[in-house]
Recover the amino acids of this structure.
Protein backbone atom coordinates (compact mmCIF):
# COMPACT_ATOMS: atom_id res chain seq x y z
CA UNK A 1 0.00 0.00 0.00
CA UNK A 2 2.92 2.34 0.75
CA UNK A 3 4.20 1.85 -2.79
CA UNK A 4 0.78 2.68 -4.22
CA UNK A 5 0.58 5.93 -2.27
CA UNK A 6 4.10 6.92 -3.32
CA UNK A 7 3.34 6.05 -6.96
CA UNK A 8 0.27 8.30 -6.92
CA UNK A 9 1.85 11.25 -5.11
CA UNK A 10 5.38 11.38 -6.55
CA UNK A 11 4.38 12.63 -10.05
CA UNK A 12 2.27 15.40 -8.49
CA UNK A 13 5.01 17.08 -6.46
CA UNK A 14 8.13 19.13 -7.20
CA UNK A 15 10.24 17.22 -4.64
CA UNK A 16 9.38 13.51 -5.11
CA UNK A 17 12.45 12.47 -3.11
CA UNK A 18 10.84 13.94 0.02
CA UNK A 19 7.63 11.88 -0.20
CA UNK A 20 7.45 9.64 2.88
CA UNK A 21 4.75 7.15 3.83
CA UNK A 22 4.63 5.53 7.25
CA UNK A 23 2.06 3.14 8.63
CA UNK A 24 0.72 2.37 12.06
CA UNK A 25 -1.47 -0.65 12.69
CA UNK A 26 -3.77 -1.00 15.65
CA UNK A 27 -6.80 -3.20 16.33
CA UNK A 28 -8.76 -3.36 13.11
CA UNK A 29 -7.34 -0.27 11.45
CA UNK A 30 -4.26 0.83 9.54
CA UNK A 31 -3.28 4.50 9.44
CA UNK A 32 -0.95 5.65 6.68
CA UNK A 33 0.72 9.02 7.16
CA UNK A 34 1.86 10.83 4.04
CA UNK A 35 4.42 13.59 4.47
CA UNK A 36 5.65 15.84 1.67
CA UNK A 37 7.74 18.97 1.32
CA UNK A 38 6.01 22.08 2.64
CA UNK A 39 6.01 23.63 -0.85
CA UNK A 40 4.17 20.61 -2.28
CA UNK A 41 1.36 20.53 0.28
CA UNK A 42 -1.01 22.53 -1.91
CA UNK A 43 -0.48 20.22 -4.87
CA UNK A 44 -1.27 17.14 -2.79
CA UNK A 45 -4.39 18.66 -1.24
CA UNK A 46 -5.64 20.38 -4.41
CA UNK A 47 -8.43 22.90 -4.80
CA UNK A 48 -11.05 22.35 -2.11
CA UNK A 49 -9.30 19.08 -1.20
CA UNK A 50 -10.21 17.32 -4.44
CA UNK A 51 -6.81 15.73 -5.04
CA UNK A 52 -6.56 14.51 -1.45
CA UNK A 53 -10.07 13.07 -1.67
CA UNK A 54 -9.21 11.26 -4.92
CA UNK A 55 -6.03 9.79 -3.39
CA UNK A 56 -7.99 8.60 -0.36
CA UNK A 57 -10.66 7.02 -2.57
CA UNK A 58 -8.05 4.99 -4.48
CA UNK A 59 -6.27 3.93 -1.28
CA UNK A 60 -9.52 2.92 0.44
CA UNK A 61 -10.60 0.91 -2.62
CA UNK A 62 -7.24 -0.85 -2.84
CA UNK A 63 -7.36 -1.70 0.88
CA UNK A 64 -10.93 -2.98 0.83
CA UNK A 65 -9.82 -6.62 0.64
CA UNK A 66 -7.69 -6.36 3.80
CA UNK A 67 -10.73 -6.55 6.11
CA UNK A 68 -9.37 -3.58 8.05
CA UNK A 69 -10.32 0.08 8.07
CA UNK A 70 -7.77 2.18 6.20
CA UNK A 71 -7.03 5.82 6.99
CA UNK A 72 -4.76 8.25 5.15
CA UNK A 73 -3.42 11.32 6.92
CA UNK A 74 -1.51 14.05 5.11
CA UNK A 75 1.10 16.01 7.04
CA UNK A 76 4.04 18.32 6.34
Amino acid sequence: MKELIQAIVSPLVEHPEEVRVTSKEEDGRITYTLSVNKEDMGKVIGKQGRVAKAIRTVVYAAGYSQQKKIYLEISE
Remarks:
- The beta strands are 20-26, 29-35, 69-75.
- The chain has one domain: 2-75.
- The longest strand covers residues 20-26.
- DSSP finds three helices and three strands in the chain.
